[in-house]
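Entry 14. Ran structure prediction on the chain below.
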Amino acid sequence: MKRITKLFITALSFILIISLMPFSVLAEDGMGSESPVIQAVFRNEDGETAEGDFLTAGNYTVDLTLSGMAAVSAFEITADYHGIDINSVSTIADNNDGFKCGGIKNEDNSFVVILASTGENNTPISDNEVIVTMQVTVMEDGDFADFFVVDEDPELTFVQSSYEYGFQAAYVCNSNEATSIYYPTLSYDMSPDLTVKTITVTGIITISDNREGSSGTNGVGGIKVYLGEEEVAESAADGSFTAVVPKGTTELTLAGETTVDRTVTLSGESSIENVNIPIIVCNYVKDNVVDFKDAGIFVDYLNDNYYVYADLMSDGVVDFKDAGVFVDFLSDSPVEYTSLSLD
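Output, structure tokens:
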């Protein structure tokens, strides 16, 4: 039988009766098949999401959520804390009749919450269900995980999915305690960074002056910028673009209806401004080789049939000057761009 602080013995007598139930064989896809996660979510006094890995001194609402479980029969979390005041504590039992609070301890820098289902076997929950809410004052800037340290003792922090498996069968977060009834798949994150971290890449996409893509002057519109398969930007008529991508992005691909597509690299650590990315736009058959097939199509655009991707000089007309530029791209070999790092 799990050890429970004597302070809570009376309040939890109804749970202890359940511990006398015979242990049953674990069913397939039942106890042991789940991966519960306890996560803290922070809101500041303005109700805005705060970063748990760097809280500034002040007051916060801290929700402890539980995911990865279809239902819960019993839940306990134990922690030591310092550098913060836990001013009040509420639980899911306050507004969900499916749970009863077996006890709350919040004194001498020690924190314990015990919950139990009032159902026959368990009570259903949703992913990211708020199990415990704390009103907290943070004394100094820092990481909440350093202020609020979860006790990994399997008798003190655990989640159970159903009484039918016996009172001792539980998910725990200490891998050293793996047994036939302890499943060390319970994890927790007391300081998640929930804000979306992005960087911005701005600049101009130009018509390449050469087969290597090493220089370009005239901006070109309609070129799409991709992160993987996701379109993150498209160049305007003057070639300008702005792409907002997750921090850590290291590659972007540029593609248009007549381009030799190009992949460029970046560190992904900081925003980048005023980049110039030249791209070849006269690969009309889109096969990465600018040859006689493209030449036959280019001729159709000379003089009378204006086509923006044949206007290689960007002067509003497709004429002999564009033809002179086009000839420089002709080759039987596939185009190979020089590497281009935006940083």
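Confidence is low (pLDDT under 50) at residues 3-28. Will compare against last week's run tomorrow.
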